[in-house]
């Protein structure tokens, strides 16, 4: 058992007393605070901007949704959840929600498929690859208002170019503005035109990060281009596909510019046949009703819907990331052949080394004899 010893000097000892701790100077104190505080100052601009432009409007919108708030009269009485009940009790909100999901399905599904195909083509060794990669981004640079006005004329009911083209094949003119589902298809075409190239570049970046050894192994195994695409490329970019799907869902639920500019009135059609939820929010808050309380309630309901979709996507992403992408399987015959080639290459290298050693030994022996 160890004995405890005291650190105090014995009685009558002449040892000097312990020195007082030295005080730090101002520069040293400032250096300590710089090490501790500076990392938080470097990241503070993001949180400050987020608090001003993201968090405060979100909280303030929730406060406005609890009051009877008119655009002209200002803040009124506290009504609690009455605005939410009024919005959910109106058929216009559910009508706009159905239109939103319809346009989203007609735009996002073909958009993701076309973006993956375009990215796969751009990932191949083609001439002027930079030109084509920059070309697919041109529709994204064009202002959405200009795109909506151009496509609004193309899909005109009477003198539109699309109706003139299908009339050549004997098809009757389509009421792109009068028919509900036709208007959804026209608006989805505008969305696809603007966002397909942007998503294709995201997929292209993900495809270029795929290890090329996987394609070489698949080629040795006898897989063709289509087999490599579905067995190697798609599994390796699954996380990117989930990300693009999530952003497409958020963008599809917040679509506003295209349906707003599809006609000269900007109210979603005469019978609101293409009125989306954001367009309904605009009409409720600043349009015919001018009720900011109900408009804020619509905004928060849309936020909850987007949040639910985001949580579902997060759960799917977690499950995919935990499993991880699988490499393509190589047959046993190919494996045996690769091992045999490796052994043959090793044997050949060993034979070359042995020949070099014998040659060096013979040269040494010859030099000794000559000397």
Summarize the structure.
It is built from 15 helices and 2 strands. By secondary structure, the chain is mainly α.
Would you kindly provide a written description of the structure presented here, covering whatever features stand out?
- The chain has 371 residues and is mainly alpha-helical.
- The chain has a domain at 92-286 and 306-331: MetI-like fold (Orthogonal Bundle).
- The protein has 15 helices and 2 strands.
- The protein has a two-stranded antiparallel sheet with strand order 1-2.
- Strand 1 (67-70) and strand 2 form a beta hairpin.
- The radius of gyration is 35 Å and the shape is flat.
- The termini are far apart.
- The relative contact order is 0.10.
- The mean pLDDT is 80.
Note the topology.
Blueprint: H1 26-64, E1 67-70, E2 74-78, H2 82-89, H3 91-122, H4 129-135, H5 138-141, H6 144-154, H7 161-168, H8 180-208, H9 212-220, H10 225-236, H11 238-253, H12 257-260, H13 277-286, H14 292-323, H15 332-370
Antiparallel strand pairs: 1-2
Helix pairs in contact: 1-14, 2-14, 3-8, 3-11, 3-13, 6-8, 11-14, 13-14
Transmembrane segments: 40-63, 101-122, 134-156, 185-206, 237-256, 297-316
Protein name: Sugar ABC transporter permease
Membrane topology: Multi-pass membrane protein
């Amino acid at each position: 058992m160890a004995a405890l010893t005291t650190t105090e000097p014995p009685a009558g000892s002449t040892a000097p007393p312990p020195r007082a701790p030295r005080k730090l100077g101002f520069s040293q104190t400032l250096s300590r605070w710089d090490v501790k505080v500076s990392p938080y100052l470097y990241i503070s601009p993001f949180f400050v901007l987020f608090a001003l432009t993201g968090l405060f409007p979100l909280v303030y919108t929730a406060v406005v949704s609890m009051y009877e708030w008119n655009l002209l009269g200002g803040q009124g009485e506290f009504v609690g959840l009455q605005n939410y009940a009024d919005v959910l009790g109106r058929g216009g909100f559910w009508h706009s929600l159905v239109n939103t999901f319809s346009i989203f399905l007609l735009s996002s599904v073909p958009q993701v498929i076309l973006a993956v195909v375009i990215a796969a083509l751009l990932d191949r060794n083609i001439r002027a690859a930079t030109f084509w990669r920059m070309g697919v981004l041109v529709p994204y640079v064009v202002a959405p208002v200009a795109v909506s006005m151009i496509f609004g004329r193309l899909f005109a009911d009477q003198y539109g170019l699309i109706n003139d083209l299908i009339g050549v094949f004997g098809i009757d003119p389509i009421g792109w503005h009068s028919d509900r589902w036709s208007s959804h298809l026209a608006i989805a075409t505008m969305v696809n035109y603007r966002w397909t190239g942007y998503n294709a570049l995201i997929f292209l970046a993900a495809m270029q990060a795929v290890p090329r050894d996987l394609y070489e192994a698949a080629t040795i195994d006898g897989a063709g281009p289509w087999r490599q695409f579905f067995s190697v490329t798609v599994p390796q970019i699954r996380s990117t596909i989930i990300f693009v799907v999530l952003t497409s869902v958020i963008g599809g639920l917040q679509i506003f510019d295209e349906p707003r500019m599809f006609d000269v009135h900007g109210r979603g059609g005469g019978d609101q046949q293409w009125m989306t939820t954001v367009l309904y929010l605009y009409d409720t808050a600043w349009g015919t009703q001018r009720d900011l309380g109900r408009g804020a309630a619509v905004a928060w309901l849309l936020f909850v819907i987007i949040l639910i979709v985001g949580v579902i996507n997060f759960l799917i992403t977690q499950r995919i990331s935990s499993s991880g992408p699988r490499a393509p399987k190589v047959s046993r015959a190919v494996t045996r052949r690769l091992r045999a080639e490796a052994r043959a290459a090793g044997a050949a290298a060993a034979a070359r080394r042995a020949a070099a050693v014998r040659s060096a030994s013979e040269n040494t022996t010859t030099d000794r004899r000559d000397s």
